[in-house]
TrEMBL record:
Xref: SUPFAM superfamilies: Metallo-hydrolase/oxidoreductase
Alphabetical list of SMART domains matching this protein: Lactamase_B
Residues covered by the Metallo-beta-lactamase domain: 26-224
Protein name: Flavodoxin protein
Signal sequence residues: none
Pfam families found in the cross-reference section: ODP
Length: 276
């Protein structure tokens, strides 16, 4: 994992996964160094990752007061239980549905949970975080937030974009990609992660995009995009076009067999990792 800093207040814990045929997808967690430190998501759970060790390079886990789980997909929950153990004072911010979904794998300790819905706020000592439902999402528990002190919008899966190279996916600024790479990646990801975008009332969808525009965020911090500072208007324009993007169709069995045939005969490759 790679660590970046955004301004004085935010650390980015960056990971990256190669998705065949799609590109290199960033998988970020964040630390908001508020008076009461907030960890936002906890990375992937692959056995060679050490989320807690990487987190410990930017904050003492024992000092963490809030773990904001934007949604309980497995690319967001990797270090969750290790962090709950290492951060005994931390409360886990999620929704009723987040708790329910987690209960199908490993139940959350309910006395550690703090239920917060989009539209509600969380006081973290020196600032108030405003929870909102991002315009694009793949899980009904999804809750991002806006911090008007750092002017950062934590958008969960929304605004994600696979990058053409691992270097770009691990960059400290989404603007290192060309405008075309960023736009194409964000539209692709919108159709992969939120296929419902083709079936909804466009005006109602655009009203949710407008709500983000009115935040006037300086930084947009997506789980699946390098940190993006100073380019929010352009990215908001891009996702406004998502209803008109080509629907995503994944590889079928014939494509899989072609892929397998291209590998050396000594072994079947591991199943591809497709984060959500
Ligand atoms: Fe995700
Ligand atoms: Fe997701």
């Amino acid at each position: 994992m790679t660590v970046h800093k955004v301004g004085q207040d935010i650390s980015v814990l960056n990971d990256c996964l190669e998705v065949p045929g799609i590109g290199f997808l960033p998988v970020n967690a964040f630390v908001l160094h508020a008076a009461e430190p907030v960890v936002v998501d906890t990375g992937v759970g692959l056995p060679d990752r050490d989320f807690l060790g990487t987190l410990g390079s930017v904050v003492d886990p024992a000092d963490v007061r809030w773990i904001w789980l934007t949604h309980p997909d497995r690319d967001h929950t990797g270090g969750l239980f290790a962090l709950l153990d290492a951060a005994p004072r931390a409360r886990l911010v999620t929704t009723f549905l987040g708790v329910g979904i987690m209960s199908t794998e490993r139940p959350l300790p309910l006395d550690r949970v703090y239920l917060l819905n989009p539209g509600q706020t969380l006081d973290v000592g020196d600032r108030t975080l405003r929870a909102f439902r991002p315009p694009l999402f793949d899980n009904p528990a999804t809750t991002g937030f806006y911090d008007d002190t750092s002017r950062a919008c934590f958008s969960s899966d929304c605004f994600g974009a696979p990058m053409p190279t691992a270097e770009l996916a691990s960059s400290d600024h989404a603007g290192d990609a060309t405008e075309e790479e960023l736009r194409d990646g964000q539209l692709l990801w919108a159709t992969v992660d939120s296929p419902w975008i083709h079936n909804v009332d466009t005006a109602k969808y655009l009203a949710t995009v407008q709500a983000v525009r009115e935040m006037e965020p300086e930084a947009v911090l997506s789980t699946h995009l390098p940190p993006a500072v100073g380019i929010a208007p352009r990215m908001i324009d891009t996702i406004s076009g998502a209803p008109g993007a080509n629907p995503f169709v994944g590889p079928d069995q014939a494509a899989l067999e072609q892929m397998l045939a291209s590998f050396e005969p000594e072994g079947t490759p591991a199943a591809p990792v497709v984060p959500g």
